[in-house]
User: What shape does this take?
Amino acid sequence: MGDRFISADQIRDRFSKAMSTMYQAEVPQYGTLLELVREVNQQESAQRSDTLSPEELNRLSVERHGAIRLGTAAELATMRQVFAVMGMSAVGYYDLSEAGVPVHSTAFRPVSEASLLINPFRVFTSLLRLELIEDPALRQQVADVLAKRDIYTPRLRELLALWQQQGGFSADEADEFVREALETFRWHQQAAVDLPTYNALLGQHRLVADVACFRGPHINHLTPRTLDIDLVQKRMPDYGITPKETIEGPPRRRCPILLRQTSFKALNEEIHFVEHQQGTHTARFGEIEQRGVALTRKGRELYDRLLREASAQKLHDNTAWQQHLSAVFADFPDDATTLRQQGLAWYRYRRNSQIAAMPGQDLEALITSGAVTVEPIIYEDFLPVSAAGIFQSNLGSDTSSVSSGNPLQTAFEQALGCAVQDEFALYQQLQQASLEQLRQELTWL
Assistant: This one.
């Protein structure tokens, strides 16, 4: 890339901060949520100052994930180009139809270790599945509405073409790109349909109405990351925020795994429909997440099996649910050594130069002596059942039972214009790269 171009990481950092500022202006309660999370993180990081590096603390302060819902394959293909400018790739395929939500999704995010440390901004991006709309006439109506809109500004399309031609953006071009791209994610009170059409789509599924009835895929939540989601859940009412009933994901553990999520209830917002009609729409909400170590395929299979077992019992009180979940997850090892040695989770290995490494020692002996340190590789992705639970809670729909779903990854990738990356392969690469670096530093390994 030429010297006059700034990096994709810088553009992503600028965009994520600009989106956070925009969303805070649109949804003031999001600002309250950030304040709460900041206070909890400061409290927790003070207690864990010996285990959190300055790089990790910086990452934590800027970390956000957002979510959008697109209507057409063409919208998804262009969105891939938008995120490519910011160094974000499509990772993973999520079939939310298994939980009664008529979309399938991917997560756009950075993938390299260096990029993740700078700003691990992610956007969970869903595509509406028209074939899951049962009423043929309604399905055609949605297709017609979506075909008439363009969610990207003309200038953004020009900038995307310029980026392709040049291979990058100058600082001024990047700032213009951020401004133009934000317009796609902005909230619009003016609906693209009349009130009867909106009500008909709402009757089919609230998410269908949210995707099809507006000028663009307004960002429907931004999510800061906390070090203690249970404490945030407990304190939310003190800040005038009503949390959803239960925390999604695994239970509280000594060694956090994967992803835990909660949210505040979606806002009821005034909408202006065509023909001077007025109504309300419920979609945008605030979410908080706590991230733990990424699991291997073996670890994920154990997690999924235990979650299915726990979900056979329906509990709507968070305290009771967490107690039940913890009891079921007693079968999941809760110490880093066992997780690592049984191949359940991914870890990063580093040389500790302050402790002598004796020739002839194997890896486990080096770890025991302290000559090699082990750090969990953070889970950067999402859990489809948890995502569906958040969607359903904030769309006001009843939670559907989990089924085998109707995955169509090939069709999704055709719409996207490329294959999604395998999250497990990415974590394995990070672990392997750390071991290779260690071998170079300890040549006898």
Observations:
- The CA atoms of residues 41 and 431 lie 27 Å apart.
- The domain at 8-291+380-407 is CATH 3.10.180.80 (2,3-Dihydroxybiphenyl 1,2-Dioxygenase; domain 1).
